[in-house]
Every structure is written in structure tokens, then in C-alpha cells.
Amino acid sequence: MNKILKPYYLQAVERTQKLILEDVGRYLEKQDTMPSYNQYILDREEYISQIWLNTWINTAASHTSSDEKKQYLEENGISIEGIPKKKLNQLFRAQIREVKPYAFQQWLDEFISEESCSWKQIYTNAREGYLERKEQVEQRELRGKLESKFEYYMEKQVGKQYEDIYLYIRYLVGSHLAVEIERYGIVLSSSELLFEEYLYNEMELPYNKFHFIEDRSEAYASLIQNYLVDFLPNWLKNELPPRLLDEYQQVYQHTMPNAYLKEVGYGIFTDITFELIDDLLEEQLKDLLKLIDIPFDREIHREIYERDIARREQKAFEDKEERRRRQEEEARMIDDIFGREYYPPASRNIHYILHTGETNTGKTFQALSRMKKANSGLYLAPLRLLALEVFEKLNEEQVLCSLKTGEEEKPVMGAMHQSSTVEMFHEKDFYEVIVIDEAQMIADKDRGFSWYRAITKANAKEVHIICSLHAKAMILQILGDSHVEVHEYKRDIPLEVETQTFHLNHTRKGDALVCFSRRGVLETAAELQKTGRQVSMIYGSMPPETRKKQMERFINGETSVIVSTDAIGMGLNLPVRRIVFLENDKFDGIRRRLLTSQEVKQIAGRAGRRGIYNIGKVAFATEQRKMKQLLEKEDESIEGFTIAPTQAVLERFQKYSNKLSLFFYLWDHFKSPEGTKKATLSEEKLLYESIVGTMIEARLSLYDLFSFLRLPFSTSEPTLRSQWKRNMEAIVENHELPEPHVKGTNLEELELSYKAIGLHLLFLYRLEKRTEAYYWERVREEISDKIHELLKSGIKSRKKTCRVCGKELPAMFRYSICNECYFAK
């Protein structure tokens, strides 16, 4: 024998001997009479030959290393140079087939001839073992069938007698509850508690929480299952068919013990436990607690249970009727309070002139020209800055005009004209001409109703409404059968979209770069200032006075570029050569989204100025093709507008209640008319939550309180919300208003101080304290000047670094991690 193969050959021999003996046993065990040894050899010789061959090849091939295989093949004159491993294994297996087979039959003959291993003894042992195993299998099958019968009858009896079982468990659980509550001194919050509320709510109350650590629902499920295991097997034993017990006696040769039913019925007990828990959870705690004093008698407890069910059903019916009555009452209240308040009014004897068209087409100029000629007029603007601009322009042209924006009032002696923000509109004041600007804002989710109110409640001979083309159909629908004169305006100055993608170093004189955040404006301006350019800035939180000065610097040529948010698209007339979109999406208060076609047009329309730039240019920094499509796309018409509570609505509500919490509840349940959407009143609710149940709510009338809740300020600023609350406390306590917190060390603090003074002014004008208001207007103007000077002197850009590796990022890089770190993820 080759020395390489010898150890594996011996292993194969040992394994083959074992397998042959196992085959002998399998062969003999199923024979009713003992066959001869020679008969076995005749029947199995071929098979056991195969046993040896398979065992030998598998043992040698799996245990021999690659080097040993190569050595063996080379010794047998086979060249193995350069052959792959798979081929090597195939050659080795083929070669070892030639090894002389083990003489298994000779070995078996010798083994059988030994006295201790006679053929007869081997047959007897194999046969007895087989019959014993067969009997065990038959016994297991018999016991399994018997177990299935017991499960069937037990489940049937449990279902049939469920109510009796429930009554007893109800008694046991009720008694346990009474002891538990007494022992631990548990304080119940109500006498009408359900068992479910006790388990899931009462245990969480501060004065009960320390008593229990474990999950109470699981603890009670375990308790009920233990009850079932204790009493149910014995009860079921008396309900099972006698023949089933006799069958158990025959199979097991002894009387059936209760332990057998506990084992067989464990799954049934688990299932019924959950059914019992579900039913108990609906029980009132007081019905369970009283059972401890009533010894268990099935009939007595059934009567008690039926009375409790009848009382619960009656209570449920009464509650349902009460809910129905309340819902009907709510529906009547909602209909009475809101009614048809938000449906377009019938035809009115007012001459409406609708000015509609593209941006920068002279719509507002035409309307104001008519207003200036009237004996009295009111201009309603979307922004304080526009109201201020019209106020100054009219007075410069010797048309006396007052200003009223909520945060400031500038009365002019003898003035019959007024310039206001749209929220300041008062429907009882009559004017010969009213001009309502940017009326497409009627669709705005927060401010839209102010435009609806102004359009539908305007008290004038002539009302001029200025809007974009996509709002035309909605405005005409609102005006209904009223006489409407429509003027459509087209741009005299064409827009030209540049084909080249814009980069910051392409900036030229007369450009307006548009991004959609204050941070973006400041960072872009800082980068431009680094190159020596003088830059004007416009963003939403910038004071109007500062914004005006920034615009004047651009108009007068002191700055060559203006960087702005989309505020530039709201009626600001500037000598802009080119509008550049640095971004194509914006955060709308909920999520970042792609700009709409109307937003792109509104902003892009500011490019070009007759006599200065006879072509308006538009450029895009990203996704040029998509943005060009938005610019050229036909706008979809506005299909809805926002509604909000009116004075009339509040007056009707006061017939029912003075609680604003109820008003907000009814408002939420009021279904707005088709084509409208309700204002969420989220800012009002946020402020109301801070004063609900306080003296502020108690001492102010509902209308006054609601008007204070609706003051137009930035409720997202926690410091301003705190200031609002302090002012409200001062009002109800008849104290002087606390002065606003003013700081001025950096741009952010100055802007917040400006807002704080603005909120203070809202209160002062609301309380008719004009002398104090004039002082704070001057302080606010000083802060505005500081902001302007700070912007004028140049903004220091904050270094932008990757939040992962700390590497400095380009100034206009949009993301917080560098490309390398992003792709490394």
C-alpha cells in the first residue's frame, strides 16, 4: 500500500465495516423469519461493494492534501505540471479507483463466525429492536390521537360553558382587584373607570406609578391563566364523555390525572385567557370590585352580571344619544356662526376694474393714476415697503396721503387718501376709489383671506384690483354678476433667456441675483464684496426702511448688483438688467420644493426697465432647461382661496360662548365651501395655548383677545412670543407695557430688536398710545439705519466647512458635507 494513501485507506476500512453492519441490521429487522447468511450475501453483495468504493474515494479525496495528491500522481507517472486544481482532483479520484479493494466479505465471514456474534444472535437483536421501535411508534400515534380527542372535547366544552367560566373568573379578578387597591392605597381618578382604563392609565398617574414596575396587563393575563389552570381541568373532567376516560385507561393503564388535562389544554387555556381579558377590559371597575362581598354562586352572579350589562347598555345608548345631540347642536352652531359668510356676495353697485397681466407692465401705475384723481382713495399693499412707497410718492405729487400699516401710523392733516397694508382694511370706511394690489395673493394659505375680504367687502364707488393672469378667473368668479371692466397688459420689454449656465464670476452691473433664504443673500453678497463690488441686499426679515435705502443705492448707481430673495418679485420696480436664479427651489414653511411657474415669472418679470434696459435678461445657475420650461409654461388658474374668521363670525359665536377653545374646535370642524381652504390659525392657536386658563383669557372679551392673537408678527421667534405674553399680562393688569428688549451688537440682534420694536408698536397703536409710538418709531428707524450701515460696510462671510472632515467648502456650496465624504458613505 502506498505510504501516502495508507492512513486514509485504514480510515475507509473502519468506516466501511461500520456501514456494512448497519446494513445487516436493516436487512434482518424486517424479515419475519431468519434468512441465511449466504442469502444476505447474494442479496446485498453488489450494494456493499458500492459502499466500499464510495467510502474509499470520498475519504481519500477529502483528506488528502493537494501536495499529497500531486506526489501520488507523479509517483504513478502522471504529469501534473500546470493543470488546474479541479483537473488535479479528477485525475486523483480516477487513479485511486485502481487501488485494490478491501476484502469486506472475508472480514464479514470472520466476524459472523465468532461465537459472540452468531448470525442468529444478530437477527434476534435486530428483530427485537425493530419490533420495540414499531410498538413505540404505534403507541405514540395512539396517544397522539387520544390527545387530539381530548383537545377537541375540551375546546367544545369551554366554548359551550364560556359564560359560566367567565362569571367565575370575573369574581376572582374582581376580588383580586379589591385587595390590590386596598393593599397599595391606589387612588382612582373616577368612579366610572373601565377595567381597561385602570390597567393602562391609572397605573401611570404620578401618585400611583411607584406601586408597580411590571406591565399590569401582562400580570393580569398571567393571573387569569393561573386561575384557569387551577380550576378548569377538574371542572372539565366531569364534563368529558366517560368513554374518553375509559380510552385513556386502556392506553395508559391507569386513571387519567388532572395534570394530563393541564398539559393537553395549555393552548386552550392560553386562548381563552385572551378572550376573558378582552371581555373584562370592557367592564366597569366598580362592577368588579363589589363582587368580593358576594360569595360565588353561579345563578346569583349571573343575575348580577346581567343587571350590570343592562345598565352598561343603557348608559351606552344614552351616551350615543348625547353624542348625536351634541353633533346636531354643533352642526347648528357651525351653520349659524359660519353660514354663508364665505360665499361670494351678490352683485354690488360698485364699478370694478380688473388690471391683469404680466409683471412690470404698468398695472399698478394705471390704477394709482385713477386713485390720485379721486376725492378719496385707499391703496392696499401686500408689503409695508410698498405701502410706504405709495405714501411717499403721493405726498411728493401733492396728493395728501396718510399711512397705516399696523406697526406705524403717519396721519397727514387734511389727507383724504390712505396707503395701508391689506390687513389694515376696514370695511365700514368709504372711499371713492380703492386699489387692491397683488390680488393673486388671495391663494396664500396664511394671508389670502385679507385679499378676499378687501375684494368682497370694499366700500367704494370704484375698486381697482391688480393681479397676475392666473388669478383672473378666480377674481371674476368671486365678483359674480357685478359689473367688471377688465384690462389686460402685455410687456413692452421682451425677456431673453441666456443659454449659458450662470456662475458667480459672470456677475455684471445691473444684475439681480435671486436666492431663497436670508443666509443665501448674505453669503452671496459677501462673496461679491470680496471682489470689490458694491452690493445691495433685499430679504424678507429686513426692515422696510433698510430695504428702501438698499434699493435707492442700487437705483442711484451706488451699488452695481442687487442680491435678493423672492421679495424682489413683489411690486418692487428696479432698473434690473438681468434676473439670475441662483437656486431653483425654496422652503415654503413645510418642505423644500421646486419653484412654480408663476413664481419664476413673477421674479423674472422684474428684468428690464423702459429707457434703461429695453431687453430683460434671465439666467439660471442650475437646471437651465427645466427652469426655462417653467418660465415659458402657461400658468394654471388659481382654483381656490383661503378663508379666515371675520368680525361677523366672532359676533355670532359670542351668542353661544366666550371660550376661544370652543371657537377653534368649531373652526376645525367647519367644512369650508367648495373652492376654498381654511386658514389653519396655527399661529393664533400657538399664542392661545400660552395664555389659556389665565387672567388674560378671563378679563378680555373674545373679540379683543382674538384681535391680539392675530397681530401680524413672527410667532416663530420664541423671544417675540414671550414679549407678546408679557404685554398681554400688562394690559389685563392695567400696567405700562414693558419696553422691548433691544440689543445691537450684530446683524441678527439688530434685526430681532427691529422686530421686537415692531411688535411693541402694534400694541401701542392698538391701545391708541400714539405719543409713545412716535418715540419707538424713531428708535426703530435708528436700528434700521444701523442695519443699513452694517450691510453697506460689507458682510463677512462665515467660513463653510464640511461637517464630517472639516475641509473648507466653496462659499456657494449647497450641502453641509463635501463630495468626497458624501461618496465615501
Features:
single chain, 825 residues, alpha/beta, eight-stranded mixed beta sheet, six-stranded parallel beta sheet, 31 helices
Major β-sheet annotation = 8 strands, mixed
Report the uncertain regions: none
**Strand ordering within the main sheet:** 4-3-5-2-6-7-1-8
Rounded average pLDDT: 88
Please indicate the percent range of residues in DSSP E strands (runs of 2 or more): 5-15%
Number of strands: 18
Helical proportion? 40-55%
Give a topology summary.
Layout lengths: L5 H24 L7 H27 L2 H10 L9 H12 L7 H10 L5 H42 L1 H23 L10 H6 L15 H22 L4 H11 L5 H7 L1 H16 L3 H5 L8 H41 L12 E7 L5 H11 L3 E5 L2 H13 L4 E4 L4 E2 L6 E5 L9 E6 L11 H10 L2 E8 L4 H8 L4 E6 L5 E3 L13 E4 L3 H13 L4 E4 L5 H12 L5 E4 L13 E4 L3 E3 L4 E3 L2 H8 L11 E5 L3 H9 L8 E3 L3 H7 L6 H10 L6 E3 L3 H10 L3 H5 L2 H8 L8 H15 L14 H20 L3 H24 L25 H6 L1
Parallel strand pairs: 1-7, 1-8, 2-5, 2-6, 3-5, 6-7, 9-16, 10-12, 10-13, 11-12, 13-16, 17-18
Antiparallel strand pairs: 3-4, 14-15
Helix pairs in contact: 1-2, 1-6, 3-4, 6-10, 7-9, 7-14, 9-11, 9-12, 14-23, 16-20, 20-30, 21-22, 28-29, 29-30
